[in-house]
Amino acid sequence: SELLALYRFKSRATAIMQSSACENHPSPSWRFAYRHLSKVSRSFALVIAELDDELRDPICAFYLALRALDTIEDDTTQPAALRVPLCRTFWTKLADRSYSTDQFGTGFEKTLLSSFPTFVDCFLSLAPQYQEVITDIAKRMGNGMADHIEDVENRTVADYDLYCHYVAGLVGVGLSRMFHASGRESDWFPQNEALSNGMGLFLQKTNIIRDYLEDLHDTRTFWPAEIWSRFVPTLADVARPELLPDARRCLNHMVADALSHIPDCIAYMSRVQNPNVFNFVAIPQVMAIGTLAECFDNPRVFKGVVKLRKTLTARLILDTKSMDALNRLYLRFLLDLTAKCAASPATTAGEPAAAVHRALDLVRAQLSAEAVAEEERAAAARPLVSGVVPLRMPAKRVGEVDEEWSGRAVAVAALVTA
Prior knowledge:
Helix content is 67%, strand content 1%. By secondary structure, it is mainly α. A two-stranded antiparallel sheet has the order 1-2. The chain is globular and about 60 Å long.
């Protein structure tokens, strides 16, 4: 069934990207935008392409604007003295047809910035409410990046959360405002920035966990010292074979921290009404929980990039069509995490196992007893298989919470039943 799903997904993806709404857009500027979107992030391009006509162009422009900003912030070949003021003022360039630069990035990111007037044409063609959101988020993100551009590590979990807020949480905030501005969703979304932020943090933390080795090659250290210093002398020591048991404990605590955002994710997605918006926000979340399940207690994280099988990825994308389906997929992967805890108690005991069981209890409560029993039977028969892509070269870039969780879980239950 996974192979069939992969065939169906690839067929649909090709049709979407070749549709008149994307690569055959009537505007040359927008054709440029969608071509670059598909090159810098094909998976995100496919999800955006499934949005309706009202939201597709604004969210494409939103993503490209922030990708351009991130390219400037992330290019450590350029001095911070050059990047900091540009991060702070980048929002003013969004409507400036005279601005372009070839000083930052490589490949399609570099081309995006060197051809920036073409992007500006797209931005200026958007309705004012979308321009306002993109400008505001770019301003907030750029200032946050500038404040921390010379930081070499996240010392505390609070530092880690703040970094993830600036690079991903604000994306969630901006998307929520766009969903409301389009009339597709209610004013509840812009009024609940904390949940929008939690959605972004869940995705960003998953990427940071998965990309440990790539970031280490690029001398970037995002894992907070508050977590890793409990297990190893330095973050680089996580990859030392003789320290593998402690490295796995460290990894599992990182996953436990990411799982703490699941209540926010469920609360947020349970309020989404528009089917296209739901697919757009839910598919990345399912991919994230699946990736965390692969990474949990998996020493291959220290040897390469752990990824879901392509066939499984296709199946997940095609199956994520409703809140009930989403909860069942969450349950599937949380049951896999539970099985890993049972198989390796020495490296998963304590907070990692507790975090998994808290999330499991929360998701079970969203489903019928029959659905839970069906997923548990399937989990019992399913082998735990992980996939890893070996790292062949450096990439371009690379406490007690029971009481807090309980309060958030109660809030989620109230939201879901409201």
